[in-house]
Design a protein that fits this description.
Layout (H helix, E strand, L loop, with lengths): L4 H30 L3 E9 L10 E5 L10 H13 L4 E5 L7 H8 L11 E4 L2 H6 L1 H10 L3 E2 L3 E5 L2 E5 L14 H5 L7 E5 L6 H6 L4 E4 L10 H8 L5 E5 L2 E5 L17 E9 L3
Parallel strand pairs: 1-12, 2-3, 3-4, 4-5, 7-8, 8-9, 9-11
Antiparallel strand pairs: 2-12, 6-7, 10-11
Length: 277
């Protein structure tokens, strides 16, 4: 039996509307990505932070994902966004790249222009190990950025530590908390850079005050939001686990299609607060 003309018209109209809505959503999500990250600001009190370090500002950026689609112009947008915040320190929390140094060194070059009072620091993400983590650790050092490979440095008022990503276990270079934190002064506050939020439970056991992470992209877009929520203790924002706080950035780039829906890219300025101020 032939479909009545009215019903056929309605079916075609619904299909066309759905197609237009999907196209509009993808277009909007792509434009959101290519405009560059927005700036978020969050104040995080740390019990051990001295009054002299009250107001210390860390520009946190993760998941820049330089590659065939997001290249040098993307890096420049990220760098300019960070520099406009005039941070005390820059923390690059993994997944900087999707490719090797030979192909992506020009795209990474604007990172040399990062500006902050105490420098820029970097820890590996899982994607660095897909590309060759050692070459990228060496290259970011050439760009004036300090890699923290299961290591720690003392800053005015607190320690900054970093652990390798869990993906490094395949190369016998995974996270080593003892190496990063074993001999520290427990009276000093410590901020830990760790790419994946899933390390938070180990972080709690080591008495870390604040963990800075990325990896989730805030879900990036449906249906990946469900996967991110199912596989990470925190998808985005600030949460407390025991005496440790965890902040997860939505990241500045994308994995796969350069589309973000409901999870715009960000650079977060974390302002540390002393309870003694």
């Amino acid at each position: 039996m032939a479909t009545p003309p009215r019903r056929l018209f309605l079916a075609r109209a619904v299909a066309a509307g759905a197609s237009l809505a999907a196209t509009a959503a993808v277009g909007y999500g792509t434009a959101t990505t290519l405009r560059g990250p927005v700036v978020k600001r969050v104040t995080i009190p740390l019990a051990k932070l001295p009054r002299t370090a009250h107001g210390f500002r860390i520009a946190v950026v993760s998941d820049i994902h330089l590659g065939p689609i997001l290249g040098r112009a993307h890096t420049r947008r990220v760098v300019e966004t960070i520099n406009r915040t005039h941070p005390d320190l820059v923390a690059i929390v993994g997944d900087l790249v999707d490719g090797n140094v030979t192909d992506l060194a020009p795209a990474a070059e604007p990172l040399r222009e990062l500006r902050s009072r105490h420098g820029a620091f970097f820890v590996t993400g899982n994607h660095e190990y897909y590309s060759g983590a050692d070459q990228w650790v060496d290259h970011v050092r050439e760009l004036g950025i300090h890699p923290l490979e299961n290591a720690r440095t003392e800053l005015p008022g607190f320690d900054l530590a970093g652990i390798n990503d869990v993906a490094g276990q395949t190369e016998r270079a995974g996270p080593d908390y003892d190496q990063a934190l074993g001999d520290r002064d427990p009276a000093r506050a410590v901020v830990l850079m760790a790419h994946q939020p899933v390390t938070i439970h180990d972080t709690v056991r080591y008495g870390v005050d604040l963990q800075l992470s990325g990896h989730t992209h805030g879900g990036q877009m449906w249906p990946f939001t469900y996967i991110a929520d199912a596989t990470n203790p925190t998808v985005a924002g600030l949460e407390r686990y025991g005496d440790t706080q965890l902040y997860v950035s939505r990241g500045a780039g994308t994995w796969g299609p350069p589309v973000r829906l409901g999870a715009p890219p960000d650079v977060t300025v974390v302002e540390l607060a002393s309870l003694r101020a």
